[in-house]
Design a protein that fits this description.
Layout (H helix, E strand, L loop, with lengths): L7 E3 L1 H7 L2 H17 L11 E5 L4 E10 L4 E10 L10 E8 L6 E6 L1 H19 L6 E5 L3 H13 L4 E5 L3 H11 L3 E3 L3 H5 L4 E4 L18 E4 L12 H6 L1 E4 L2 H7 L1 H6 L3 E4 H6 L10 E4 L4 H20 L2
Parallel strand pairs: 1-6, 7-8, 7-10, 8-9, 10-11, 11-14, 12-13, 12-14
Antiparallel strand pairs: 2-3, 3-4, 4-5, 5-6
Helix pairs in contact: 2-3, 2-11, 3-4, 3-11
The chain binds 1,4-dihydronicotinamide adenine dinucleotide and the ligand O=C(O)C1=NCCCC1.
The site of 1,4-dihydronicotinamide adenine dinucleotide has 25 residues, from α3 and α4.
Enzyme class: oxidoreductase
Protein name: Ketimine reductase mu-crystallin
Subunit structure: Homodimer. Binds the thyroid hormone triiodothyronine (T3); T3 binding inhibits enzymatic activity.
Amino acid sequence: IDMAEPPVIIWEQEVESVLRYRDLVPRLEDALGKFSRRDSAEVLQPVRTAVPLQKHSGFMGLMPTYMENDGVLSTKFVCFYKREKGSTLPAVRATVVLLDPECGNIKAVMDGEVITAMRTAAVSAISAKLLMAPGAEVLAILGTGTQALSHLNVFTEMFSFKEVRVWSRTKEKVERFVRSAGGGVRGCGSAEEAARGADVIVTVTGSTEPVLYGQWVKAGAHVAAVGACRPDWRELDDVLMKSAVVYADSREGALSESGDVILSGAEVFAELGDVINGTKPAEREKTTVFKSLGMGVEDAVSAQLVFDQWTSKETKP
Ligand SMILES: NC(=O)C1=CN([C@@H]2O[C@H](COP(=O)(O)OP(=O)(O)OC[C@H]3O[C@@H](n4cnc5c(N)ncnc54)[C@H](O)[C@@H]3O)[C@@H](O)[C@H]2O)C=CC1
Ligand SMILES: O=C(O)C1=NCCCC1
């Protein structure tokens, strides 16, 4: 008889209290490398299923992953939306479910928003670690939402930029972001002002049209492009996509979900995991784009880490 325990619920504040970039980053590097080896005993992760929520201008993404060797089985449910300017509704809502692969019972249901914010930013930081030019001094962030903040947090924890710039569509949002960052961030009046001369540019907007143009991007800069995760959505223009060496988290994901890749016709040179595995070079001296779509395996290792940390905290006297 299966005497499975009922699932534990680990909600936002608890996830926040146990998840740390210093633990997450090495697990994500390991997961990206495993994914790119395409060994089904390491990672089984289909391209996410996206169910259109047409009435609400959104999608529900289902992101199942199985890591047989590690005994990790999970799925994330993530709803993401194209929000009108001025909307106060969230752009991304997510829940991660962790299961026992042997019995199929649910071990934990956890908030997926902190996981999504932190793992996405951590993967962008890994892309920068691998691909930005040595001595990079200026970081520019386009967007001032949830991902902008998590990217600021991990990039400033992992690197020592001399200057951090931020841009968003409204002056108020830029000012609020600069205030909440508590100093050290310069607000910019245009995306061009933020991007010109920057060594690393992060695009974390809800835009469906290009916000970053190749003519503004310094030769040798690294761009981590996080938004525009539908085949007809863009954040980057054709000039940038065609002139850069393009990396992705998943080649299949990029070729089925990224408007920047599909509509520009740019070639995906390598996955980040290929660089981690040493099977493809890091073209640090060239202009590079990391196109992030987000992968289930990133959620799987993050959720397992949260579960392990949470369990050890709970069982401590
Ligand atoms: N690659 C990945 O793994 C993930 C990607 N995303 C995507 O990243 C993007 C940002 O997500 P969040 O920070 O959670 O959203 P958010 O709603 O918190 O922030 C979005 C930001 O983009 C700005 N924005 C919206 N429309 C714009 C436009 N037309 N032009 C310029 N700026 C615009 C907003 O003012 C805001 O600053 C979204 O596109 C989301 O779908 C989110 C999670 C994971
Ligand atoms: O991987 C994720 O999580 C997401 N990717 C693209 C859109 C929002 C969430």
